[in-house]
Amino acid sequence: MEQLMEETRRSHPAPKPPGPKGHWLSGNLPDFIKDRFAFFRDCAQRYGDVVALRFGPRRVYFLFNPADIESVLVTHNHNFTKHFALRLNPLVLGKGLLTSEGDFWLRQRRLSQPAFAKQRIHAYGPTMVRYTERMLAGWGDGEKRDLLTEMMQLTLGIAAKTLFDADVEGKAREVGEALTIAQETFAAQFNSILPLPVWVPTPRNRRMRNALKKLDDIIYGFIRLRRASRDEKGDLLSLLLRAQDVDDSRMTDRQLRDEAMTLFLAGHETTALTLSWAGYALSRHPRVEERLLTELRTVLGGRAPTVGDLTRLRYAEAVINETLRLYPPAYTIGREAIAACEIGGFRVPAGTTLLLPMWIIQRDPRWFDRAEEFAPDRWLDGLAQRIPKFAFFPFGGGPRICIGNTFAMMEGVLLLATMMQQYHLDLDPGHTVRPKPSFTLRPANGIKVILRKR
């Protein structure tokens, strides 16, 4: 029977998915760059759950169905690698968990996993709350602030402390600017028909190399200090230094640098963006904010939150989940097919790039009532168990699920609870907030708010 089915597949190959024609040279890339969310939505509405496109010489498919997402990330994950954009700039992330593949990735994941055990992550809770309170002590009633800048500096400080046991307050702006340049380089390469190699001395590549040198100097400095010290600091770097594989091997300085850079870059920005978008959403939905405040008063009674409060801060967690649904920091995930296969009844040639746009999937009315509405209540009645598994996947899924998802969720809830107890955020009436899908989902011009002390 299996042989008959295989012969049938060969004699009746799966069709190519439908999709827009595009320009003869650039394909669909100009439309994608112009307004990728509108383009995602238009493709889903016109062509269905699997859409074929071309970005210059590269074949690209959009996937909009959770069942197909599960096939790529879980069921047949062995046939897909991280997509080409993450390999365009190897100088930044190197061979960290985000970019490495195969046996090397598996070894690094195995060595890193103990550092992200729940008990170890919970030990960082007090640091998260303390740094947030330090930030709030510098705020004043009636001040105007850019919420994105504030959250970036806050989560950068927390990342440095929990990762390196270091205080980077004096270097926060410098590090933040370097990370921004690195992200802009990623985005520019992805949006190019024929991206130039990083060794070509363009102005952008020179800026990226200068920024990277600053980051490398800081991170390698932390590694040298920790190797020279015999003190147990309890930070993630200490755990990674001591991590030992089954063959007794440990990470080299370069491997440590790559993992630290990945955690530093991805770890602080995703939480900062989530909290920025959460603050924006709460400022526009006073009923949601009032319900959150009622929970905070009931559970905390004015004191600072602790890790022990997390199980009772269910509405705060729902606010974070709803923010991740509507404003996912990693708004699309990319994979590349190693061998030819079928997805959703369509053929996928080897080398095809697959984009899984959670921005569209997590707003799909097939899975979510009032799909465009910010409604955290939806997460309080078992919705996560009723919807398809990959209708909501802000941290990815399968073997490559984000290793820091527990850390990120805990940090999001603790920081949100600490901040909202003390301040209400009014949007600056002269400022327009617009999502900008670059390498991550940033607000185009920040989120300008007026602080109101409670």
Throw out a few tags for this protein.
12 strands; single chain; alpha+beta; 454 residues; 18 helices; five-stranded mixed β-sheet
Q: What does the secondary structure layout of this molecule look like, with pairings?
A:
Elements: H1 2-11, H2 29-34, H3 36-47, E1 50-55, E2 58-63, H4 66-75, E3 80-82, H5 90-93, H6 102-112, H7 118-122, H8 125-137, E4 144-146, H9 147-164, H10 172-190, H11 203-228, H12 236-242, H13 253-284, H14 286-300, H15 314-326, E5 333-337, E6 341-343, E7 346-348, E8 353-356, H16 358-361, H17 383-386, H18 405-422, E9 423-427, E10 435-437, E11 441-443, E12 448-453
Parallel strand pairs: 2-8
Antiparallel strand pairs: 1-2, 3-5, 4-12, 5-8, 6-7, 9-12, 10-11
Helix pairs in contact: 8-9, 8-18, 9-10, 9-13, 10-11, 11-13, 13-15, 13-18, 14-15
Your description of this structure?
The protein is of the alpha+beta class. It has 18 helices and twelve strands. A five-stranded mixed sheet has the order 1-2-8-5-3. Strands 4-12-9 form a three-stranded antiparallel sheet. Strand 10 (435-437) and strand 11 (441-443) form a beta hairpin. Helix 11 packs across helix 13 (253-284) and helix 13 crosses helix 18. The longest helix is centred in the middle third of the chain and has 32 residues, at 253-284. The radius of gyration is 23 Å and the shape is globular. It starts with a helix and ends with a strand.
